[in-house]
Amino acid sequence: MASGFPVRELGFGVQIPMPTGAEAGSGGLLKRPLTEMEIQQQQMQFQHAHFLRSVRQRTLLAPHASSHLSPPFPPVVLSSGSSSYSVSANLTALGLARPLEHSSVPQAAGTGVERMRDRLQELERRLLLDDEEEEEGEVSASSSAVTTAEWSDAMQQIITPQAPAPTPLSSSPTSSSSSSTVSSSVSCSPPSSSTAPAAASSSRQMLLDTATAIADGNLGTATANLAVLNRVANPRGDAEQRLTAMMVGALLSRLNPAQAGSSSLPIAALCSGEHFAAVQMLYELSPCFKLGLMAANLAILEATKDQAMIHILDFSLIQGGQYAALLHALAERHRFQPAVCPPALRITVVADPSSPFTNPNSSGNLRAVGDRIEKLAERAGLEVRFSVVHRRAVELDASALGCQPGEALAVNLAFALSRVPDESVSPANPRDELLRRVRALRPRVVALVEQDINTSTAAFAGRFAEACAHYGALLESLDATVHRYSAERARVEAGLARRAVNSVAGEGMARVERCEVFGKWQARMRMAGFDSVPLGPNVIEPVKDRVPSDHGFTIREEAGGHGLGFGWKGRVITVASAWH
């Protein structure tokens, strides 16, 4: 790898081009003799070569030389048409660039050298958590890009309990009152508890301001803000840092689609096997999604109890994991009522050949999922038949779906309708047409589970604000259930990032996932001729018992039991309801 590091990895596959050392400006390098530190001997013995080796901005602390620090922030060039904007110039004009100042290490107090050594070890541990893959070999001092102010801020988090002096994120009047210190890319650990809320509020506001600037065509302000947000973004940091990394990628895709890739690339990514696996993992790891699916299963079982034959139509099978809980519930019901024969269950997956989510490999993948479901049912002592029907919405009828007399028909629309185009995309309105066709089948119950967010009809800036609130709450909730550095967590959040990019940056047919708020879902169901079915205690109570009580997860019951909302600290993420 050549020195200078031509790109900076934001995570989630998004890269921002970085200039070479010659382009970074003519500012001189700061030099501070190590003799200023009273604990020089202890520091020099403490793995100088690894101390800051893997920091995202690449810093070298040589054992026999002065510390070399680069100018405050190298210019990031983002092209728009035939023009390009030098971010460092914009930062200076907006007063956003940090002044260079010599960093210093306060003297150790109390226990002296041993306490200082422990604190320096803790700093190194935090820094190395942000390790990124790089080639072996020495890194030249010219590739360092960490300012003295950032170094001082990171040291202060370990050495002293006081919060560092606040640095405004934006010079605009709307955000000046909420300014705070930007969490430096030197450390991937969250800021101290006293500064975290303010920093989160400031970075969130800057994201919203950037989206507004892009919507208004103010690309100079947008690129300047993106440069500052780039320093806050950390896909392995706290929830706000991860949200910033995710939404910066979405903003870059909106600002420069040619740089992010062709318009079909996000759709292909959302239809890949990797994304389907990430979605299924999300259903398992997030209580908000898992409990929504559980409520749908229980609503189907409640509406079809005491029926000898049950036929479930599923319009969004994904990987089939949601049916493991349903089969378990059927097996438990039979165990407690051995005199009653378990019902014969049919599951028919409806795949729309005109949908981008249906590809030539879909049939084989769905058949493999069906085989797993049938084997699981066999071990549970249940009879299950699985089939796949390829039909467009306008072709759906009882004969095409294989419906038989005497069957109790149930329709599972969990996370399915948001992937069907609505009236904002096509005058034919396939979403409402699908609901009318389902209504004509006269099912006993239709289980509906969807995310509670408007990414369909809202304009870009409003859609971006909705996405920030929604994904911010979702990322925070994952902190309570999944270890931050687990492989499953990384896979799930990469899938969420793909969703965010598509729902924020995509327009027209390119935006394939169009969610709506629960009130709009209710209105759409009623217009199609459905009536809401109250979720009784046999559905609500088991779901409530599964809500984690020692975290921030919340459950909101709609009036009369006409829906259950699952969320994080009051922000509803998913809603489950039943209709007939």
Could you list some keywords that capture this structure?
transcription; alpha/beta; two-stranded antiparallel sheet; 15 strands; disordered N terminus; 580 residues; transcription regulation; nine-stranded mixed beta sheet
Describe the structure.
With 580 residues, this protein is of the alpha/beta class. It is built from 20 helices and 15 strands. Helix 15 links the parallel strand 8 and strand 9 (383-390). The protein is globular. The model is unreliable at 1-39, 44-110, 130-194 and 260-264 (pLDDT under 50).
Map the helices and strands.
Blueprint: E1 7-11, E2 14-17, E3 30-32, H1 40-44, H2 48-51, E4 67-69, E5 77-80, E6 83-86, H3 87-94, H4 113-128, H5 148-159, H6 173-176, H7 196-215, H8 219-232, H9 239-255, H10 257-260, H11 264-270, H12 273-285, H13 287-303, E7 309-314, H14 322-336, E8 344-351, H15 362-379, E9 383-390, E10 408-414, H16 430-440, E11 445-451, H17 460-479, H18 487-505, H19 518-527, E12 532-533, H20 537-545, E13 553-557, E14 564-568, E15 571-579
Parallel strand pairs: 7-8, 7-10, 8-9, 10-11
Antiparallel strand pairs: 1-2, 3-4, 5-6, 11-15, 12-15, 13-14, 14-15
Helix pairs in contact: 3-8, 4-5, 7-8, 7-9, 7-17, 8-9, 9-17, 9-18, 11-18, 12-13, 12-18, 13-14, 13-20, 17-18
